[in-house]
Design goal:
The protein has 70 residues and is mainly α. It contains 2 helices and no strands.
Length: 70
């Protein structure tokens, strides 16, 4: 039971990170609750190439959104 919980949390974190790289919200993972088709749609979303606009999810609150060139 503990192993299932650990792998579930890790899998959800990995899926959210991959969706963020494609500039999509991590809430798309709720498609897993749809039997069959939900996981297939998510699989296709995970295969999408990275999008530079996905870095908006990397910004931490309270930090500058632009980087300074040296």
């Amino acid at each position: 039971m503990l192993w299932a919980l650990i792998t579930l949390i890790g899998g959800l974190a990995l899926g959210a990170r991959r969706l963020h790289d494609a500039n999509l919200s991590g809430f798309w993972q709720f498609l897993h609750v749809l039997p069959g088709i939900g996981s297939l749609v998510l699989f296709v979303m995970f295969l999408l190439p990275p999008n530079a606009k996905g870095t908006r999810f990397d910004v931490r609150p309270g930090t500058a959104t632009t980087t300074r060139k040296r």
